[in-house]
Fold this sequence. Notes:
Layout: E1 12-17, E2 27-32, H1 33-37, E3 41-47, H2 53-65, H3 67-72, E4 77-82, H4 86-95, E5 103-106, H5 111-116, E6 119-122, E7 128-131, E8 134-139, E9 142-148, H6 159-170
Parallel strand pairs: 3-4, 4-5
Antiparallel strand pairs: 1-2, 1-5, 3-8, 6-7, 8-9
Amino acid sequence: MIQLGDALPDVTVFEFAEAPQEGCAVGPAPVSVAKAAAGKTIALFGLPGAFTPTCSAQHLPGYRDQAEAFKAAGVDEIWCLSVNDPFVMHAWGKDQQVGGRIRMLADGDAAFARATGLTLDLTGKGFGLRSARYSMLVRDGRVVSLNIEAPGRFEVSDAQTLLAQARGLGQR
């Protein structure tokens, strides 16, 4: 499992692009995690699924609502990762009115979740392999803060907890 000080895995996730980007038409665009995190401070949170109750009512809205506070604390980008496809992540971002404040990244085949060891097996419950619920602060591709939830919990990966950690690290 990923630990403090570890580098993010060099895997590819996907993001829905509403406008043509380098090498990509409108639609799913590949995002190299290692490349996208290089030289930045990222508030990254992972969750079991788009449009699910806790994820939609609490987890994502907390980060959306605190986006400016994260910027003030020195965070360059906020990333939301889930084992969903890029179309679902894009639709969920629109539904949640993230408006560019959060990068909605699809880990459709669970490459990131597997590589970090942050998986949640919901096989038999209709969900299959998912992402665990967690948050982490990443600087220049390395984990500097990590909060992993116990299954079925939402106590340590919320926006307020990670924001306090970002503020604390900014003072060092």
